[in-house]
Design a protein that fits this description.
The protein is an alpha/beta fold. The protein has 13 helices and eight strands. Helix 1 runs parallel beside helix 3. The structure holds iron/sulfur cluster. Iron/sulfur cluster binds next to loops.
Length: about 325
């Protein structure tokens, strides 16, 4: 009963425009299992009240794959691990713009250019700015970028090129970070987000759950994400990649995944909360139930190094959830 009371109290606070405290966020994440359906239902109602019935559908284009200099222990693209995935450098602009046009025709709202760089090399960065300009002028799509660490000058150049939003994930809780990555710090990641914000870019940030972190560390991550106030939150669910240190990581139980999405809705009621990598393998329904429990965004047509659902299948999931693409 205490759990349901917590959910009701927090719902009333957020629905009336208020902000829940860190302690209330902890209580929400820890509601007993018998209060979990009430938590998910409340998160779903908040989502529809604050964001409407639409699901934000995004398509990614991995414009530089593999051989990243960093050692993030979940990542198939780190040069530290032999994961056997293909490697390629920045493809010709025409190829990327064609991809954006196809995504537009397939119903995607935005196109995200992602590169496995610690930071963009200067010549490649200039090319990406030109590509952003062309996607904007030739398709009218919103463009997001995820290019690694940015200088303030680069953040400004991306904004002027027409990029709307910059993605840079926090990955995991500050207290877990050094077990996941040793080549840069949590603070480095926050710094790039500040630079992007300083240049007037919208922010997209989040993390990856299921890395062996505790529930308390998921709360820590969620509260750090709230501090940044991103327009979009991305929560990935680990898909263990053979060859990485986390290849044998035990999957998170579905209830833990649902709790995290519901909590993010209570913490950032007006932001897009996107189910990123992992929904096709970590959930039985490719994320359909999460769209009723706090999430309102998906990535379609595959991920950076993994296949995903085809756009037609995702449209079907959205229809079944009685939502709109
Ligand atoms: S998560 Fe990003 S920074 Fe880390 S290894 Fe992968 S591509 Fe590089």
């Amino acid at each position: 009963m205490g759990g349901i009371d917590t959910v009701r109290r927090c719902y009333d606070v957020v629905a009336s425009g208020g902000v829940i405290t860190d302690a209330e966020a902890r209580d929400l994440l820890n509601v007993p299992d018998d209060a979990l359906p009430a938590l998910l239902d409340a998160a779903g109602r908040l989502t529809r009240a604050m964001r409407g019935p639409e699901v934000d559908v995004e398509q990614l284009h991995n414009i530089k794959k593999n051989a990243c200099s960093e050692d993030c222990s979940f990542c198939a693209q780190s040069a530290f691990f032999d994961t056997g995935i293909e490697t390629y450098r920045l493809p010709p602009a025409e190829e990327i713009i064609e991809g954006a046009k196809e995504a537009r025709a397939g119903g995607a709202d935005s196109y995200c250019l992602v590169a496995a760089w610690r930071e963009p090399p200067p010549a490649d960065f200039e090319s990406v700015c030109g590509i952003v300009r062309r996607i904007r002028s030739e398709t009218g799509m919103e463009v997001e970028c995820s290019l690694g660490f940015l200088t303030a000058r680069q953040a400004g150049a991306l904004k002027r090129a027409g990029a709307r939003r910059y993605n840079h994930n926090l990955e995991t809780a500050p207290s877990k970070f050094s077990q996941i990555c040793t080549t840069h710090t949590f603070a480095d990641r926050v710094e790039t987000l500040k630079r992007a914000r300083g240049a007037g870019l919208e922010l997209c940030t989040g993390g990856i759950i299921g890395l062996g972190e505790t529930r308390a560390q998921r709360l820590e991550l969620a509260l750090e994400i709230r501090r940044i106030r991103p327009e979009e939150v991305t929560i990935n669910i680990l898909v263990p990649v053979p060859g990485t240190p986390l290849e044998l990581q035990v999957p998170l139980p579905p209830g833990e995944i649902s709790r995290m999405f519901a909590l993010m809705r209570f913490l950032l009621p007006r932001s897009i909360v996107k189910i990123s990598g992992g929904r096709e393998t970590a959930t039985d329904d490719a994320g359909e139930a999460l769209l009723g429990g706090g999430a309102d965004g998906i990535i379609t047509n595959g991920y950076l190094t993994m296949p995903g659902n085809a756009p037609g299948r995702d449209s079907e999931i959205i229809r079944r959830a009685r939502l709109e693409a």
